[in-house]
TrEMBL record:
Species for this entry: Uncinocarpus reesii (strain UAMH 1704)
Lineage start: Eukaryota, Fungi, Dikarya, Ascomycota, Pezizomycotina
Cross-referenced SUPFAM superfamilies: alpha/beta-Hydrolases
Domain AB hydrolase-1: 62-255
Gene3D superfamilies reported in the protein's UniProt record: alpha/beta hydrolase
Annotated protein name in UniProt: Homoserine acetyltransferase
Family recorded in the similarity comment: Belongs to the AB hydrolase superfamily. MetX family.
Entry keyword annotation includes Transferase: yes
Keyword line: Transferase
Amino acid sequence: MAFNDEYETFALGDWSLQSGDIIPNAHIAFKTFGDPKSPAIVYPTWYSGLISHNFWLVGDDKLLNPANYFIIIPALFGNGQSSSPSNTGIRPFPRVSFYDNVKAQYELVTKHFNIKHLRAVVGWSMGAGQSFQWASQYPNFMDLIVPFCGSAKTSLHNQVFLEGLKSTLFSSKRFISSLSAANGQALDGGSYRQWTPDEREAGLKAFGRVYAGWGFSQAFYRERLYETTLGYKDLEDFMVNFWERHFAPKDPDDLLVMLDTWQKGDISQQAPYNGNFEMALKGIKARALILPGKTDLYFPLGGRTWR
């Protein structure tokens, strides 16, 4: 099966958010595989991921087989393809929640594709969070969800990890994280200031190196799988040519928008649950195949990963 980086966009108009803010002339980016008449599966993107980064699970010999399903890959707000600071020029960008993302995806699915029901929502990491969000926000709309390595509510430990990542970017502007932020983005004296090339480069390099300690397990490093499996010559080669390379082309504000979405993830932050997390979990009607990773550092197997 041939893949390419091309994608489509669906216009949302002036998109109202949970916060009361609006994304003017918003759009959601997406790509599809398969026959629109087949059972539909929504497969959202993950933190910092582009639509093309989801292709690994799609194929004739993969779980998401286009011969059997109509697969829709929608991009998160802030990923650089859907409406984001980098492609709208809106800085600081409005605060976007999981609810806002899934509401936009529902608009795409129902208005653009005229789909009445989904076979499944499948997702990894922030994609898993969106799977839980779909099941709580539109509980009768899908048969099942398959969230893997993700959670329905961002844990305190996960929030701390994300705060550390945020601080690597803010520190390159010499700001203190939460004291110099609006909607998760850095401000200077109450107003937004563009990143200088040096700030951007330093911040993104630090961001990649901090993420390196969390994106793979202790066992991954202990067994030197970056050498034996991925083919890097040593640890520094891996840090530079995997982690730094992944984040180098990113827009810092795009990363901060998605990070803020993730950090505040909680399926109970919507009506009718109004903060009652147990009620939100009980409101899920779809069957759920929850797949935690045994060695995952922020969605651990023993940590009630749906939370």
